[in-house]
Design goal:
The structure holds two protein chains of two kinds. Chain A is an all-alpha fold. Chain A folds into two domains: 1-60, no CATH class; 61-200, no CATH class. Chain A contains nine helices and no strands. Chain B has two domains: 1-39; 41-176, no CATH class. Helix content of chain B is 81%, strand content 0%. Chain B has helices spanning 2-26, 31-39, 41-66, 68-82, 90-95, 100-114, 119-129, 134-145, 153-176. The longest helix of chain B has 26 residues, at 41-66. The radius of gyration of chain B is 21 Å and the shape is globular. The interface between A and B is large, with 108 and 100 residues.
Amino acid sequence: MNYIFYFLIAISIIIGAINGKLQDVVNSIMTGAELSVKVAISLIGIMAFWLGIMEIAKKSGGIDFIAKLIKPITKHLFNEIPQDSPAIGDIAMNFTANAFGLGNAATPFGIKAMEELQEVNKDKTTASNSMCLFLGMNTAGFQLVPTTVLAILIGIGYKNPTEIIAPTLLVTTIAFVSAIILAKTFQKFNKIKEVQDDKNS
Amino acid sequence: MTKILNLISLWILPVIILGVLTCGIAKKVQIYEEFTKGAKGGFQVAVRIIPYLVAIIVAISMLRASGAIELTAQLLAPILAKFNIPADTLPLMIVRSLSGSGALGIFSDIANTAGPDAYSTRLAAIMLGSSETTFYVLAVYFGAVGITKMRHALWVGLLADFIGIVAAISVCNLMFA
């Protein structure tokens, strides 16, 4: 991430200077910073609401119930965390919300899942294998119906907008499965590195 | 099929909310008390992710303002032409991992310029519909728990995005070309 952060900013300034758009680049620092805070602030309300609902679900055993339902799958995917961890239930809720295009609800569930994964993580500043897998699956953006895209297509007078649902679903499934395979493959290579780091320290 | 899915999308949250509350009442949980206890966390989480969001969103805003994305698109255009990929979808391929609102803007632009019957519109629709803003997801979720060393998460995200692009092009080619 250090290199990527450096790369993004250095490239922007250099290319911006060459293109004569340096002023725009400088202005975008201001607008970008403002946008970040807006995004975070807009999350507060909906986040509070869903965290509240989830607290009730946790107390009444709802999250445990869902966790039990999907255990056969998560047992294989998230095999490094305790199977009675509340993270399993939160992960299930996150994917359900994402699958139905409910991004607003998915984020609080996802963050809750990350907090539970962090509980069982040894090094609190370094991502665990389970976290990388969970986020890899999330970045693949698995969704049953791309509602926003459909709305725009209908807006421009696309005759049969539903015809893109099946191909989109196929593509997103391919990306989703790839993310799982990639995360599982990468973690094998990274594990060796970790052991070496342990020896060094 | 779509109607059923839309119906589920509409009903799933109300059903979950009512289900959770009913279950709580039935089990004699102090639901009002527990709700407010949990909701307290909302503010902290939002504040905690601000530094991570600022880092990512500012860097990406700068990149978009610099014209680097258009430049990359120009450089890659001859390669794409060989695979019969319309050049106007290229900025979308680059931006969709970086910025959600940016990708949506580019998609509306393609849809409005190329029109409802264009191959570009279909390809862009499939590409956008099957993706998630990788950088945003990583910043928010890792930021919420204070992880700064992401290990392979970013590469998994970006490689899966790339596979998604290739898959979108292939599927679109098979179905609509």
